[in-house]
Amino acid sequence: MVRNCDVLIIGAGPAGLAAAIYAARAKMDTILLDKVNPGGQIAITAEIANYPGAPDDTGPKLIEKMVKQVKQFGADIVRDKVVALDFTGKTRVIKSAENEYHAKAVIIATGANPRKIGCPGETKLIGKGVSYCATCDADFFTDLEVFVIGGGDTAVEEGMYLTKFARKVTVVHRRDQLRAARSIQEKAFKNEKMHFLWDTVVEEIKGDGIVESIVLKNVKTNELTEYFADEEDGTFGIFPFIGVIPSSSLFEGIIEMENGYIKTDNDMKTNIEGVFAAGDIRVKSLRQVVTATSDGAIAACQAEKYIENKFN
Ligand code: NAP
Asked: 27-51 burial string, b = 16+ CB within 10 Å, else e?
C-alpha cells in the first residue's frame, strides 16, 4: 500500500514523539513509524530524575504521556519496519516489506540500542538471566544477586534501581573510576546494597538454559574468577549497561555520518535537503531525553519551513 504524508518520522523515542507533536500541531499530515512500540531506550529506563517537570515519572510513564499528546494532535503512529529508502526524488520514498510511504520531508529519529559485551554465553542467555532492561526484568531478581556491567550513568542508576529488588548488586567496571556523574556516584556509594568490582571485565557467561555462573577477569592481574549462583538461588541476574550503538545501518552510504552518527547542523538538517535527524542518532555532545525532545521540535519546525518553500 502507498501512503502519502507531509512529514514521515522514523523512530518513536522521545525525539520522534516530540517531532510528531510539533509537526501534527502545525497541521502537517504526520506519520510516526517504529518497528516496535513507542518509547525507544527511555521505555526501558526506570527513573528520569532530570527531565524538567517530571521528577517522579518512570520512563514508561513519560512515554505514555508523550504518546497521548501525539495522538491528541492527530499524528498517525504506525508500527512498521523500514527496509529501504529512496531520497533521490522531490518526494522521499520510505519502504517497508509491505508498504511504501511518500513524504515531503523526513525526520530520522532512530536512536540507539544497548551495546553487547560480546562475550561467550551472553546472547544465548538473554532473557534467561541476561537482561538489558532493569525496569522490565528487575522483579525476576527479587532477593537474588545481580551483576551490573559498566560504569556510566546508566549502569549506576539502573544498578541503584535494581537494589530495590535484588539483595546485592555488584557493579563490574573495567576501570577503577566510574564514568557516571558525581551526583549519581555519591548516591551509589552510600547505598549498602551496591558493591563495586574495579578493573574487571566479563570473559564468559555460563549456564544451561539459565545463568549459572559468570567468569570475570581482572585486567591488571589477568586473574580469572568464576562466580557461581548460590545453590539456593540457582541463578542470578546480569545487566550489561555499557553504552549504546546508533541505529543507523539503513542510512549508510546515503547520509553523511561520523562514527555511525548522522551529521546535522543546528537546525537538524542533514546533507540531504528535506531530510532531518533528531535525538541520539545524530552527532551531539549530550544525549538526554531533554535534548532529544528539543531536537525533535527543531526538526519538525524546520520540516514545516522546508515544505512551505519547496511545495507551496
Ligand atoms: P556511557 O556513558 O557511554 O558509559 C558506558 C560505560 O560502559 C562506561 O563506563 C564504559 O567504560 C563502559 N564500557 C563501554 N564499553 C565497554 C565494554 N566493551 N566492556 C566493558 N565496559 C564497557 O553509556 P551510558 O551510561 O549508557 O550513557 C549514555 C548517555 O546517556 C551518556 O551521555 C549519559 O550521560 C546519558 N545518561 C544520562 C543519565 C542521567 O543524566 N540521569 C542517565 C543515563 C544515561 P569507560 O568508563 O572505561 O569508558
From this structure: ebbbbbbbeeebbbbbbbbbbbeeb
Which entry of 29, 76, 133, 301 is annotated as an active-site residue?
Answer: 133
DSSP class per residue in 174-206? SSSS--S-HHHHHHHHH-TTEEEE-SEEEEEEE
Mean pLDDT (10-residue bins), the chain, 312 residues: 97 98 98 94 80 89 96 97 96 96 98 94 94 90 97 96 97 98 96 98 97 98 97 96 95 96 98 97 93 98 98 88
Q: What is the pTM (predicted TM-score) of this model? A: 0.84
Choose one of 45, 174, 177 to mutate for the ligand 1 pocket test, by most ligand atoms within 8 angstroms of C-beta. 174
Contact between 260 and 77 under an 8 Å Cβ cutoff? The reply is no
Backbone angles phi and psi of 223, in degrees to 5: -70, 135
φ, ψ (nearest 5 deg) of residue 265? -95, -170
Distance from Cα 180 to the centre of ligand 1, integer Å:
7
